[in-house]
Amino acid sequence: MPHTDSTPVLRADGLTKRYGRRPALTDCHLDIPRGRVIGLVGPNGAGKSTLLQLACGLITPTSGTLEVLGSRPATNATQLARVAFVAQDTPVYAALTVADHLRMGARLNPSWDAGLATRRIGQIGLDPRQKAGRLSGGQRAQLALTLAVAKRPELLIFDEPAAALDPLARDGFLHNLMAFVAELGASALLSSHLLADVERVCDHLIVLAGSRVQVAGDVRDLLASHHRLVAPGGGPDRLPAGVEVDRLPAGIEVDRLPAGIEVIRVEQTDRGHSLVVRSDGPRPAGPWSVESLRLEELVLSYLSRAADVSAAGSRTMAGEAAR
Ligand SMILES: Nc1ncnc2c1ncn2[C@@H]1O[C@H](COP(=O)(O)OP(=O)(O)OP(=O)(O)O)[C@@H](O)[C@H]1O
After folding, report:
1. Which atom of ligand 1 is closest in space to residue 50's alpha carbon?
2. Most exposed: 63, 168, 233, 270, by fewest CB within 10 Å?
3. Are strands 63-68 and 10-19 parallel, antiparallel or unpaired?
């Protein structure tokens, strides 16, 4: 059931979070429609957990604003009931049984779906009498996921939900997640290092690196606007016009590419050089072949560009310190 409410699920404006002087998120702008499954990807320390914790109101921004489902996060009980969060370590109460957790969920959540919770516990084979402290990491994750889903929230937030699950359990979890989102028109925001999972379930993407949003958007739009340009015949002397080998990869100056093309990454492959570019207009025509990208290649291109920028920044700082 598609969501008809036009309020964005997530809207960030200049969102910045610092821990002391350390930036965890810097000047983030996001505007994501409802009913999406949003994949949040990025390297360790990129700021993913920070964004998720801001979205469920566990922490507050240093500056800028964040609205979740049209309101500031966790401002009142109604807003709290609309959002479910499963933290990275999938916390449960060790001394309580699985059944105790379901009873607690029923007490704490106004729209608790007891049938869904019991059914899911049965499907994943958890013994209701088992103490949560005796569950394996994967079983604990499944219990935490069940509690989140049975709350019937409008937005599910998961910090690396599938990390502790075996491949079969992960497959089942992702399947259930998609079914739940489709049935209720709910939205989901999940961080993951598993790009194959993101590719499978997400229709919206946020790539974070170095505390900044590198790219964000609808997955189909992103795939349509990004291409790989491959020089005919390959070889360093057969690059697209304007790209000079001795200026790669840092400080890329691609001054003779058509206007409106942003170079994301220059790669040297066994076929020679290729460029990953963004072109929001028509496919960039020129003396090169144009190939489509897989989502994983697109993500890696942005991460690699961010890593180059960060390394260049560190070299500049080291140079200044040495002077
Ligand atoms: N409570 C905290 N106090 C101080 N610094 C923090 C705190 N939480 C996070 N940070 C710092 O903020 C930055 C972003 O951390 P965050 O946990 O959001 O990254 P992440 O993308 O979720 O990483 P990972 O993939 O490793 O979980 C890191 O540099 C981290 O060290």
Report:
1. 18
2. 270
3. antiparallel
